[in-house]
Amino acid sequence: MIAGIITILLFISIYSLNFYMNTQREEVVVDRMEQILDEYQEIQALSLMSDAFGKEMTCLSLESTLSHLDKTLWDTGLKIDQYREVTEQFITDPFYLNQKKKFNRNEVIYLSMLENMKEACNINQSVLLYFYKKKEECPDCDAQAFVLTDINKEIDDEIAIFSFDSNLELPSINALAVFYNISSFPCTVVEDHTYCGLHNKNDIENILCKYRDHSIC
Amino acid sequence: MNIGYVVLVHVVWFLSTYFVIVFLLAIFSNKKILYESPKLKESNKLPKASIIVSAYNEEGTIANCIESLKKIDYPKELYEVIIINDGSKDKTANIVSKYQSKNIIFIDNEKNNGKAACLNQGIGKAKGEYIACMDADSIVPEDILKKTVPYFEDNKIGSVTVSVEVMQANNFLQRIIRLEYLLGLSLFLKIFSLFNCIHVTPGPFSIYRKKLLDNIGYFDTNNITEDLEIAYRIHKSGYKIANCMTTSVKTITPNNFKGLYRQRRRWYSGALLTLWQHKDILMKNKVGLFGYFIPYNYMLIASGLGLFIFSIYLTMSNTFKILSYYALTNYNFFSNWTFNFDVLGISLFVFFGISGILGMVLLVTSGLNASRNSPKKKPSLYLGYFMLFLLYQAFWLASFFIVLTKRKVRW
Prior knowledge:
- The complex is a heterodimer.
- By secondary structure, chain A is an alpha+beta fold.
- Chain A is about 70% helix and about 10% strand.
- In chain A, strands 2-1-3-4 form a 4-stranded mixed beta sheet.
- In chain A, helix 1 runs antiparallel to helix 2, helix 1 (about 1-55) packs parallel to helix 3 (about 95-120) and helix 2 (about 55-90) runs antiparallel to helix 3 (about 95-120).
- Chain B is about 50% helix and about 15% strand.
- Chain B has helices at about 5-30, 60-70, 90-100, 115-125, 145-150, 170-195, 210-215, 225-235, 255-275, 290-330, 350-370, 380-405; strands at about 50-55, 80-85, 105-110, 130-135, 140, 155-165, 205-210, 240-250.
- In chain B, strand 2 (about 80-85), helix 3 (about 90-100) and strand 3 (about 105-110) form a beta-alpha-beta unit.
- In chain B, helix 1 (about 5-30) packs parallel to helix 11 (about 350-370), helix 9 (about 255-275) crosses helix 12 and helix 10 packs across helix 12 (about 380-405).
- The longest helix of chain B has about 40 residues, at about 290-330.
- Chain B is globular and about 80 Å long.
- At the A-B interface, helix 1, helix 2 and helix 4 of A face helix 1, helix 10 and helix 11 of B.
């Protein structure tokens, strides 16, 4: 009887600890999303300043902010996926689904801002869009993400990768998918050219080098 | 995540944690009485005892066994030793014949009949009120009878088991097995006895009430683990099995993995066959707590094995998956590798695993603290014990396969 009570108490303690950690995970994700929003505001401010005071003055700051945002976005995306996986082992938490939606919307906003600023500030970054779906519908998507993560680590400053979860059914992502003629998954878009199917590191590097001169070329 | 895996993790965690906590509470609350054993009332005369040893190709060990039996501190006229040569092809018969005396009886069988048949043959000839059955590769201390016989003053006691110790631990494997015996075949049996749940009367040395053996019909010659099978019938007959930790039997253990596998294959296959043979006691009140302890124990083993297989499958499939990913990056293992440990990335599975390992460490430590003659608590010993535990899962798997495919297991 006592042993049974102790066992149940231990079980409750472990679940309570997990619940506490889940709360902490959610706080981390929310903090990071707020950080991204702050950086957007900074970019918006710089854009307005650019109109008022001229591009020469703001381009340098803008480039630095965009580069930092790119890293924040990538790390946040990975963190959401990691926490979502840990949580989904036991429960389906709508929190991560909502955050993922917010995150993808933010990526679309960032992509639009980057496209606007690229020409004006002569930003020499390759833009890579990665469209994926969940494992069950796209067995090669995890492998493609692994390859892109590896490339991103290698030429982080020279590349901006945007990953879009097509399962979220966001109108903005659907519009992008139609615009880039995404027919299957995984699908990668490099400098407005669409490459669907799984591509290894060498393939992606060759594609990147085709459009811009990178340190890996 | 697979729902089956989630369920298995919970089931194994609950069953094993409850088991560990029951043991820990039992150790702490009975620490003082673990090494207590009854003494014969002075008014009672010492009863006659018989010790039966079955020997098959034991030329290297039988002499030591007989020497230890000769030194037993018990009136010579009140105990006899019956040694049965089970058709040995070596010099066992020659060695034993030299020891023949008034109280050392030698039966030389030309044909190999198996251990159970030999023991039964010896029991048939025995004149003792209590019958001890012993392995020929084991040795006993002088006090073995004086410590065990008094238990039979309680008329409900049908058999008494003693602590089983490893005679020589020459290598790391044997040192781990020594720890395993110290806990599993000594302390745990004592704890089981507190709940009247001893499931085995170990072959190296166990003593039985002759009247009980006459009632239940001796050892089952068709069972490869006759010492386990008889324990079930003792419970069925309404008798209890006691455990005495104040004396012990020293026995030889396998010194390599092949030998260990052969031994455990027999033990585990025999255990499964015995379970099937006596399935009528499962979840039945007629054998008391034993009827619930046995299914609990095998449920833990089966679910633990299921979790083991599932975990191996998941680990291997993840490893192959990751390797296939690395193949896409030209096996770029380290050039872009960064160590990012995030405590929040730890899942509930890990907490279950950590609590399970901590429970096991606590159980082993408490067991060592409660036991006399325990080895030093070295981390390598703990790790080895844990690894052996994993290895036994593979042995259980092999045993399940053997039983399900109805293959024959030899001694």
